[in-house]
Amino acid sequence: MLRISLLNVPIDVVTRTDAVDTIVQMLASSSQRHVMTPNSEMLVEAHRNKEFRRVLQQSDLNLPDSHGLLWAARYTGQCLPERVTGVDTVRELCKHLDAHTSVFLLGAGDGIAEKAAKKLQQKNPHLKIVGTFSGSPRQEDAEAIIQKINAAKPHLLLVAYGAPAQDIWIADHLKHMPSVRVAMGIGGTFDFIAGIQKRAPQILQKLGLEWMWRLVRQPSRLPRIFTAVVVFPLLVMHSRARVQ
Hints:
By secondary structure, this protein is of the alpha/beta class. The chain has helices at 16-27, 40-48, 50-58, 67-75, 86-96, 112-123, 142-152, 165-173, 189-194, 202-206, 210-217, 222-243, and strands spanning 3-6, 9-12, 33-36, 61-62, 102-107, 128-133, 156-160, 182-185. The protein has a single domain (3-239), classed as Response regulator (Rossmann fold), CATH 3.40.50.2300. It is built from twelve helices and eight strands.
């Protein structure tokens, strides 16, 4: 699969359809795979966090989950065909899973993963969800969480602790969960599926202005949004200037 590089992080050149097809193929394999959904904010974090950057560089599939990445690709003379969000990918993936593929939802606030599971099963009656748990990415909680997951024996593990915690957790512990063929870090996806948070109107999503919608609804996100819409472009421009 073709990949480009942004701030020393590989990003896969995929559409949402490509992403879903690839994950379905991964689930049919006996190997364990780590899927990530990097966005502008995550690439800024990876720029200053060596451990997180290493995880991104070693993951099996990195979906371009922000318009900022599409802009950065164009700016650096590369190309990404479309934005591939975690929430849209999960929703579409659940339509394509057969009844033999089991799923475990890990993370988010108390009861949110359970609500998300019910919503997903309402739309996909065939979907086999074998467990939900909020848990935490703390190291002291890992053993109990792994035991719970191993008892359920899922093939697909969706982890919603937020980045970088969720993906560092996956990188550290995936090998201890032998039934899991694909583990995917998905950020706030359960909140959206459960209806706790609302997506921006389609027109704002298409214009790349979803950040504005989220800022109005959650002013506390200002530092994160500043990182994505100001710090990230500056880093990309500086990176390009250094190689010219």
